[in-house]
TrEMBL record:
The organism's taxonomic lineage, starting at the top: Bacteria, Pseudomonadati, Pseudomonadota, Alphaproteobacteria, Caulobacterales
TM spans (from-to): none
One Pfam family in the UniProt entry: Thiolase_C
Keywords: Acyltransferase, Transferase
CDD domains to which the protein is assigned, alphabetical: thiolase
Name of this protein: Acetyl-CoA C-acetyltransferase
């Protein structure tokens, strides 16, 4: 089977809800990272054979194939097709895996995998709310109800169930959340994100133009005491808004190519796709899926947990990476080295390729060889991608 290589990765700095990226239309936001990927590689834009873009809220400004709209808002020629993917929080990680599969199959040589989400302009859950307003009910069908009677699938409840199942305390989750901010602060101040972030021009209320280059969600004044003082999401629970991922606007992209494309276009690979897989799991506890998915992925790849030099485990809620490390025996010091979504934000459909951009940066900074990316997804699923830095 042919190999698939990542030759460039980029992301925007995250924007808070109603924050610095609120005036960016999501198609333009997506187009900005497509342009940056072309700039980073110097490749002829016409050589791109497909754009696969993850997006969860595919309504309103993100409707009508946001991927194609982003292409039309970019410097890519009209000849470049595009399609949009929804695998919930794993949407752009799945886009990357689809891109790698296209290259490995030999049917394509140059594919851009990307993601975009403007959670300010297209609020979370909007797609599920609209049908109910029109009298057609919600996404849970009568046959789903028969299989899962009187159960409302909820990521919030799933996160609490994970905490309970793995015996995690509120103090553990609060400490992890504080560490996410501490690591993100240290990484930002050290310039660790500099090479992965594309600067975007923003205009403030007074008409002043500046460049957005720092993740807006980081609380540079965060304290453990402050985090501990945030109220619980539910009575007798363990999680709070401070131990949950932040609503975020953003976009990200990676370019995946074949060995043939490396030679034809003079590209230098950052990493090789070593393994990719996907697992469906219990949709009720929902967010536990990265654990069995990683166990299976490592077994299929013939690897052990200690073979991995850096992990990106999406911080949808603190209970997910804490349970992950506890159950699998992964070194916490290797997980989300530069902080995660609790501090940096979780722009849903953009988070997959966003995390890959960060993972590649960490591997380079730490001199690591193998990196593993995974994330919990609505409906009880998880993607796992293992890369080898070159």
């Amino acid at each position: 089977m042919a190999e698939a290589y990542i030759v460039a990765a980029t992301r925007t700095a995250g924007g808070r809800k109603g924050g610095k990226l609120k005036d960016w239309h999501p198609a333009d936001l997506g187009g900005s990272v497509l342009n940056n990927i072309i700039d980073r590689t110097g490749i002829d834009p016409a050589a791109v054979e497909d754009v696969i873009m993850g997006c969860v809220g595919q309504v309103g400004e993100q409707a009508v194939n946001i991927a194609r709209n982003a292409v039309l808002a970019s410097k890519l020629p009209e000849s470049v097709p595009a399609t949009s993917v929804d695998r919930q929080c794993g949407s752009s990680q799945q886009a990357m895996q689809f891109a790698a599969q296209a290259v490995m199959s030999g049917t394509m040589d140059v594919v851009i995998a990307s993601g975009v989400e403007s959670m300010t302009r297209v609020p979370m859950g909007l797609a599920a709310v609209l049908p109910a307003q029109n009298g057609f009910g919600n996404y849970k069908s009568p046959r789903m109800e028969e299989r899962y009677p009187n159960i409302q699938f909820s990521q919030f409840m799933g996160a609490e169930m994970v905490a309970e199942k793995y015996g995690l305390t509120k103090d553990e989750l609060d400490a992890f959340s504080y560490e996410s901010h501490r690591r993100a602060i240290a990484a930002t101040q050290a310039g660790a994100f500099k090479n992965e972030i594309v600067a975007l021009e923003i205009t403030d209320a007074e008409g002043n133009k500046t460049l957005h280059t720092v993740d807006e969600g980081i609380r540079f004044d965060a304290s453990l005491e402050g985090i501990k003082g945030v109220k619980l999401l539910r009575e007798n629970g363990r999680l709070t808004a401070a131990s949950s991922s932040q609503i975020c606007d953003g976009a990200s992209a990676v370019m995946v190519v074949s060995e043939k494309a490396l030679k034809e276009h003079g590209l230098k690979p950052l990493a090789r796709i070593h393994h990719l897989s996907l697992l469906g799991h219990d949709p009720v506890i929902m967010l536990e899926a990265p654990i069995p998915a990683t166990e299976r992925a490592l077994k299929r790849a013939g690897m052990k947990i200690d073979d991995i030099d850096a992990f990106e485990v999406n911080e949808a809620f603190a209970s997910v990476p804490v349970a992950y490390a506890k159950h699998l025996g992964a070194d916490p010091a290797k997980i989300n080295v530069n902080g995660g979504a609790i501090a940096l934000g979780h722009p849903l459909g953009a988070s997959g390729t966003k995390l890959m951009a960060t993972l590649l940066g960490v591997l380079e900074q730490k001199g690591g060889k193998y990196g593993l990316q995974t994330m919990c997804e609505g409906g009880g699923m998880a993607n796992v991608t293992i890369v080898e830095r070159l």
